[in-house]
Design goal:
Blueprint: E1 12-13, E2 16-24, E3 28-34, E4 40-46, H1 48-51, H2 54-67, E5 78-82, E6 89-93, H3 100-107, H4 112-131, E7 144-147, E8 150-153, H5 180-183, H6 190-206, H7 216-225, H8 235-244, H9 255-261, H10 274-293, H11 310-339, H12 372-377, E9 385-391, E10 394-402, E11 413-419, E12 430-432, E13 444-451, E14 456-463, E15 466-473, H13 482-495
Helix pairs in contact: 4-6, 4-9, 6-8
């Protein structure tokens, strides 16, 4: 979970400014940082007690050197490090997505197709790690970041730095996701990561480890002495996961074999359920918003520019900049309310009207209106695709989502369009849509239209600063306008400057 820095946290590590805390673990702390060029990164700082351990520092330096060689699409690459610092640190790419642990906890087990994409991505990531002569040794749901284009393996290889020297015999890993040989303190190799892969995929398919929950010693005992519980795993994966979880390393498949077994179709680009895609979108939006709130002001700006520069000044300015942005947004909304009294409940649009206390106006981007609940309620199964067209001298901005099952033959879509001038999405063959099921309550000057083939339906209405429309499209089917009108009503508060309920 992203948290504000506290008084004890560092504000600078090497050339990286630290802006938030991402987590804390046995090895140290992880922060969200910004590079000198403004790129967001994950900065991992070794715990002070380990920084004084000469054996650990040597092993850490070797691991970092090897980890910098790890590439591939499914790992968070190491981009910088200083193993000689008072507290050694490591910087990796930052992926603004939830962990697999968060995804399963919030949305439940993944369907078969998503499991295959997840498994193949993790196997490819492990192959890249093993090619650099590293063993992850702590592959678990919390070390897998879920992104639109596949999973990312993080924290690879670093746990191995804790083994050896005075740490000999220590069990490194997470009960429920570590191999029997790991649980017994025996030497480990790539086969241990394959075992962990089987545990992670079982967790993603069922919501629990194949060795259950409970006290660490109980879970480790089951790992060594009992068969895995694969109840709930799709039949297509059960046999494969069973051999991944073989008690002896020699009985498990190679990572290359796992990759071949889990190979996915080129059509699996939209591999996640709609709710998970919404979660990723919200995380990305939150990261971008946070990045904007902490962007430093231009050089030479402000009364203290000659005396202050760099990270210290950026930190001092972050809160005022955010406050100023909010104030300007509120002022802009107040001006809009005065110009468009039709959205003030019939009032005159004076400064005392209810509209002036609404949230700052929305961005004007149709893709910036949905949230987790809206996507789930309306069964949107893809991240919104931005588009638009010319409407005379005005531009119509659009965002289109697929609706229903994410299959190749499903062409149902929902489109939200916005412009500062009046427009219609259905240009020809439109007829007024009359149905007792089409409700347009709360939409100013709203109307519903359908084309002659009844495979498209448009609902349009006025907003405080322009016009909006929802186009429900079901080629070869029958767009009833019912779904479109409900979608329009749920989106309208956001376009009016507020935020849909979550």
């Amino acid at each position: 979970m992203i948290q504000l820095l506290d008084a004890e946290d560092p504000r600078q590590v090497g050339p990286y400014e630290l802006v938030r805390r991402l987590g804390r673990g046995g090895m140290g702390e992880v922060f969200l940082g910004r590079s000198p060029g403004g790129r967001l990164v994950a900065v991992k700082v070794v715990a002070a007690e380990l920084a004084h351990d000469a054996v650990f520092r040597r092993r850490f330096a070797l691991e970092v050197k090897a980890a910098r060689k790890v590439g591939g699409f499914y790992t968070a690459q190491v981009v910088d490090a200083d193993t000689d610092a008072v507290r050694p640190w490591l910087v990796t790419a930052y992926i603004p997505g939830p962990s697999l642990h968060q995804v399963i906890g919030d949305s439940g087990p993944l369907p078969l197709r998503a499991l295959r994409v997840l498994g193949s991505g993790l196997a490819e990531g492990l192959a890249a790690i093993h090619a650099a002569d590293l063993v992850h040794r702590d592959l678990k749901p919390g070390n897998v970041i879920v992104a639109d284009d596949g999973p990312r393996v993080i924290d690879f290889g670093i746990a191995r730095a804790l083994d050896g020297g005075q740490h000999t015999g220590a069990v490194i890993g997470t009960p429920g996701f570590m191999s029997p040989e790991q649980a017994q303190g025996k030497p480990v190799g790539p086969a241990s990561d394959v075992f962990a892969l089987g545990c992670v995929l079982t967790y993603a398919a069922t919501g629990h480890s194949p060795y259950g929950q409970g006290r660490s010693d109980v879970v480790l005992y089951r790992t060594v002495h009992e068969p895995p519980d694969l109840e709930g795993v799709p039949d297509e994966l059960t046999a494969f996961l069973r051999i991944c979880l073989a008690p002896e390393p020699g009985g498990r498949p190679l990572v290359s074999d796992a990759l071949r077994h889990l190979v996915t179709s080129v059509d699996d680009t939209q591999w996640l359920p709609a709710g998970v895609s919404a979660m990723i979108g919200e995380r990305r939006a939150a990261t971008l918003a946070m990045h904007e709130r902490t962007v430093p002001e231009p050089p030479g700006a402000g009364p203290h520019s000659s005396a202050e520069s760099g990270p210290a000044r950026r930190r001092r300015r972050a809160a005022p900049v955010a406050a100023a942005t909010l104030a300007v947004g509120a002022a802009a909304w107040a001006a809009v309310a005065l110009l468009h009294p039709f959205n003030t409940g019939g009032g005159s649009g004076t400064s005392g009207s209810s509209a002036t206390v609404k949230a700052a106006a929305w961005s004007g981007d149709p893709c910036d209106v949905t949230n987790y609940r809206l996507i789930q309620d309306h069964q949107l199964t893809s991240v919104g695709q931005a588009g638009g067209s010319a409407n005379g001298s005005h531009r119509v901005k659009t965002c289109t989502w697929k609706v229903g099952a994410a299959t190749v033959d499903n062409n149902r879509t929902m489109t939200l369009a916005y412009s500062t001038a009046a427009f219609h999405l259905i240009a020809d063959r439109k007829t007024p849509k009359e149905s007792a099921d089409v409700h347009l309550d709360g939409l100013t000057s709203a109307a519903a239209y359908a084309n002659q083939e009844e495979d498209q339906c448009e609902v349009d209405w006025r907003t405080p600063d322009g016009y909006a429309a929802v186009l429900e499209s079901e080629p070869g089917g029958s767009a009833s306008c019912i779904l479109g009108s409900q979608f329009a009503q749920d989106l309208a508060p956001k376009l009016a400057g507020g935020t849909p309920a979550v």
